[in-house]
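Forum: Protein Structure Q&A
Topic: Joint prediction for protein chains with partners

I've read a bunch of threads here and the consensus seems to be that you should model interacting components together rather than docking separate models afterwards. I'd like to see that in practice. Below is the full input, 1166 residues plus whatever partners are listed. Could one of the regulars post the assembled result?
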Amino acid sequence: MTDIPLLSLAVWVPIIGGLLVLATGSDRNAPMARALALLVAVVGLVVTIPLYTGFDLGTSAMQYVELVPWVPRFNINYHLGVDGISMLFVILNAFITIIVVVAGWKVIETKVAQYMAAFLIMSGLMNGIFAALDGVLFYVFFEASLIPLYLVIGIWGGPNRVYAAIKFFLFTLAGSLLMLIALLYLFMESGGSFSILEWHNLPLGIEAQTLIFFAFLIAFGVKVPMWPVHTWLPDAHVEAPTGGSVVLAAIALKLGAYGFLRFSLPIVPDASMQLAPVVITLSLIAVVYIGFVALAQADMKKLVAYSSISHMGFVTLGFFTFNPLAVEGALVQMISHGFVSAAMFLCIGVLYDRMHSRLIADYGGVVHKMPKFAAFFMLFAMANSGLPATSGFVGEFMVILGAVQFNFWVAFLAATTLIVGAAYSLWMYKRVVFGAVANDHVGELEDVTGREFAFLGVLALCVLAMGLYPFPFTEVMHASVDELLRHVAVSKL
Amino acid sequence: MTDMQKLYLLVPLAPLFGAIMAGLFGKTIGRAGSHIVTILGVAVAFAASVVIFQDVQAGNTFNGTLYTWMQAGGLTFEVGFQIDALTVMMMLVVTFVSLMVHIYTIGYMSEDPGYQRFFSYISLFTFSMLMLVMSNNFLQLFFGWEAVGLVSYLLIGFWYERPTAIYANLKAFLVNRVGDFGFLLGIGLIAAYTGSLNYAEVFAKANELAGMNMDVTGWPLLTAICICLFIGAMGKSAQVPLHVWLPDSMEGPTPISALIHAATMVTAGIFMVARMSPLFELSDTALSFVLVIGATTALFMGFLGIIQNDIKRVVAYSTLSQLGYMTVALGVSAYSAAVFHLMTHAFFKALLFLGAGSVIIGMHHDQDMRNMGGLWKYMPITWFTSLLGSLALIGFPFFAGFYSKDSIIEAVHASTLAGSGYALFCVMLGVFVTAFYSFRMYFLVFHGKERFGHDHGHHEHHGDHDDEEPATDHHHGLAPGQKPHESPLVVTLPLILLAIPSVLIGFFTIEPMLFGDWFKGVIFFSEHHEGMKELAENFHGPVAMALHGIQSLPFWLAMGGVATAWFFYMIKPEIPAAIQRTFKPLYTLLDNKYYFDRFNEIVFAGGARLLGKILWKGGDQGLIDGLMINGSARLVGWVSRISALFQTGHLYQYAFTMIIGVFVLLTFWLNRA
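Posted by a regular:
Agreed with the consensus. Here's the joint model:
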């Protein structure tokens, strides 16, 4: 292992870089802000690559660990490390940051430096969440990451942005306060430790476990979001600028799901086992109910937002079947959803930038004017419907296969997404892209620019690569997932 | 990797290369470049398939992994090939028909602006279909399964400005997804109970599975697996009630109707069940289910062919009906007969579709048979090859279709499975129906009075949505006085090349395929399914079979169908109209295709949209946001208004409140002791 503190770089390069971008000041220096932001984002990705290449497949232990006392009085440490569960998300996050910077290149014309800085800082903070092994450090990153996203929605958002931003903020804040209480309780119980890894081995009674479980369920469930605490997401997406939606869907939603794996399952395994039916039920409601809700949407962004919730239902479903195939499938689904939902929102962004409408009814026949765009959009819509050879298939397939081993009826309900997911994705595609040119505005559309082609093309390659050869993605997960499931199977009572 | 293995790889990759070239660089390499590269790709695949065929004939089979797609949860997911008699037969059929269709397309699509895109799609289809048939595991099977569905979707909607086309392709995709839903669950059950997705490993455990019951539901496991898998086949091979997408798929250009929706893709379900014969053989319940579904499709879809006026739709319903025959054969464990019919059908149905396409070109994209008649004079090659195709379809002795269809009927006859009586009735009556609609079409198109070239204005259309089409579509028709003309060589050559196997292939291959060793070790029968054994005992060579056939009931039923069609449409054309008037309710039922479409449109499509709206408006906006979120916000507001009452700004009130507070606290504190 190298001595370079890779994880610290992954966290602090974007944050410090973001502050530098902020320092470029007013929009007179916008070109410089953009260039600097891109540079920072690229460096941010480059420093995360060694995490994968140097990753030790043989161990489930934390790797690239950094441990420095932070507040010695309360035994709070600056403690970072990744395992097979978290490592890929750090890279995904750094990757998506580049996409977001490029996507906002031309579209954002006011407060450019602030916009770019917000995303860079957010990216660093989110890396901190995935890498933190100290409860307080995790909490600080978790809360701090809310602020840039809140600002992005509140400043660069749509007409109803203030409502959406506040709704988003209150929902997630309410959840995380419960988490704070749980963290403090664990601190007391463990005799003064904030180490997440020590909490994993902390014996807890079933009542304490149950209470902690629900605290985490609400905290992380809001983030995922799970039914019925999901209603903030469509509003937030609709009002957020494209970049905000991309980060929200691709990364922010993963934080909650990640929390389940890092906190709920290993810290309160008995409660997790006992209450799994609750989570599975909520997940299935998310998959089926939200799928139908997506079908009824008239606004493209809302549709994709609901489809995100439905897809995230697969993630929580996979986790709580405690089946290795399904858990890895859920992790794959998280990464795939990072690509696919990002791409879907970017596609909608491409249309929105030209037409300033997100309503499906305002479109029709886009393919006549934007054939390249139509091809990309088709690929992503198909990935969203889980077509084999795209990344969208892999996770769904694994979770469904794992669910059959768990309970046939659970798999049965989950598999309905094959039909409903295709229905809402392709029905939207049909109404937006196919058909005769619907109106003069559509008639004046121009196909994707080189910049748009670049980011859609890169995502298309990711979607296809993961669909055709998911081996490298799942390979790194095995040791950690197996260890996690072994750990969960051992009672703490 | 041995040379043979490289050759296996070449078969799917050559068309894929063509597809990529034409798809991504179509503009650069131009129209000619696109068709040259794709045709070369498919030709290479065909040539390689021939070599592999000879190799398999020599007794060399292969089963191996190409690469490991993923490993997780104790399962290994692989991409690999299984090359055996069944595979190589499918490879030959797919590449040959595909090659014919590629050549034909040069003529058919010559004026279409999406020329390169079309070639790219059909080559991509060929690749996907080859991956499907060459697979040695369920994962890759599902990959190919979905990929051919995708290309089918893209091609049905090829003319994406037409509302009917984009309605049809979405419908096709979603109905297929219903099938895939079952298919995926079947694969999931296999993975859960065998721990493998590899065919050979799964088949090795078939007997073990047959004795098991499912954990949660308690159903017999193997029956559940087979029915789930067959639901997938029902989607892809368009069996009732998942058949509804196939007639509408005729919105796509005719070459793909021939390739995808007649010869190859729709037979994927048949192929799959034949491939899974080691599993299906062990569940009589599943086989009965297959049999009844197939028999229903064979007869009742044939009825619908009788009343169609659109030339392509007649052939489409005929395809549905013939797929039903194949499914029936699967149900009575005559897998080899099913695959045999699959092969002969691929040739003669591709021929009939391409013939119909040639007629459509000749008629300047008028597809209504009521505007045709007497075309034999103007389109001799199309006429004659279509006649041969029709004879093959109705099972005229010595033609390819005779051998395959007669074998199926005999196998049903010999079967003792539950439902075989019903099936026999359906396939027998189906022979008459097939002959009737086939020759109705033949007479209406090629013989009788010339009805084209009249100014028929906006004639009454049949079918779902034909009359919604915009003026710019391809339904021009001939101008008054204009005559139809024979199609160019690129169109007629494939017709001739397809006509040859349509006539001959049954005669030459029935013996090895049905009664020889060709499928030995590939297709399995259990001892108590005796249909094929009985057939083999009665088989004394193809000539004897044909001569015997002339003395048997199916032949006379077919002749009766031809004669009836001739009488109705050549001698007394007023009879059909009279029947239509007399049996009005029956006609209405058929005209509405047994109301499947309307039922689906209202119950499933409408129901889903309504449910979505209810859950959204009622659930999300009403209950969750309205009651819980904004309700709690209102609660907070209400509490704050009450508490605002205490914040009056008057100092004396604050002081008073404070005194009361202190008093209360003191009381508590004092009482504590």
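The first strand of chain B starts at residue 62 and ends at 72.
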